[in-house]
Structures are given as C-alpha cells and as structure tokens.
Amino acid sequence: MDHNKRRGMAGQVKRFCARFAQGAGGALGRVIPQQRLLQWIEQEAGDYRERIYGPLQTLMLFIEQVLGADHSCQDAVAQGVSHRVALDQSPCSLNSGPYCKARARLALSLIERLGREVGERLRAGQPEVWRWRGREVKL
Asked: Which residues pair with residue 135 across a beta bridge?
C-alpha cells in the first residue's frame, strides 16, 4: 500500500473511532485500536480501488447500520452522505446499490477478526466481581 493511501486511511480510521466514541457505540470507539484496524484492512482487503465505499467506509457504515435503530441500507447510505457533507466533501448519491455491493465485497475474515478482537478485549476488561468463584460465567 503506497504512502498516500496509508496516510489517508489513517485519517479515516481516526475519524471512524471518534464517531463511535461520540455516538451510541461509544464503547466500541474505546475498544478498537486504530493501528490494528489499519493493519487488518491492509491484510484482509488487499489491493482495492479508492472509491466512495472503500473497505473502511463500508465497514464503518455497516457497523452503524447494525447498531442503529433503523437497520436499512438506505439509512446507512444517508448517514454516510451526511458525514461526507459534514467533512466538506461532495455528497454522493442516496442510491443504496453501490453500498450494498461494497458491503458484499467486504472480506468476511475482516469482520470475523474485528468481532473476535472486540469480544476478547471486552472479556479481558470485565470486572473481577462478574466472576463466580474466579471463573467466567457463560450463558
């Protein structure tokens, strides 16, 4: 990955984590390590064309879609357009087709890796009082 693409991706990751720290997914913003996320995208997504719905943007919108009250693709696209306008970027189409195609291109291994890492970090940070006789309680 060339230097300019890496630097642009680092800025996107920083904004990605800041969005979750401020929004409903506040815990997620504190759990995801920025450098690790960049590394995972490089490893799992490989080479890709720079587009509106690149791997990071698509992943960000997908997580917001899952965590949000309205789970529709249309709402995810609207949030993405709103975020672009807030960053003084030109708005893109509200058509959800390109987002859905980009979501289908996301590497499943990236999503699985993210889920495992977040779960492990949350488990490791659980208070000792949540344990029963020093053991983890699993329901």
From this structure: 132
Which residues does 87 contact at the CB level (< 8 Å), separation at least 6?
A: 15
30 to each of 18, 83, 106, 133, how far by Cα in Å?
A: 9, 20, 23, 29
Per-domain residue ranges of the chain: 3-130
Contact criterion met (CB below 8 Å) for 134 and 83:
no
Handedness of CA 110, 113, 119, 124 (dihedral sign): negative
Could you tell me if 12 and 57 are in contact, meaning their C-beta atoms sit under 8 angstroms apart? yes
If you ran DSSP here, which 8-state letter would residue 135 be given? B
Q: At what angle do helices 97-105 and 73-86 cross, to 10 degrees?
A: 100
| Predicted confidence (pLDDT) per residue in 14-50, tens digit | 666 665 545 444 445 567 767 778 788 888 887 777 7
CA distance 87 to 91: 10
Dihedrals φ, ψ of 135, to 5°? -110, 150
From the list 109, 114, 127, the residue with the least C-alpha distance to 36 is 114
Give the global pTM. 0.69
Which letter does DSSP use for residue 91 in this model? P
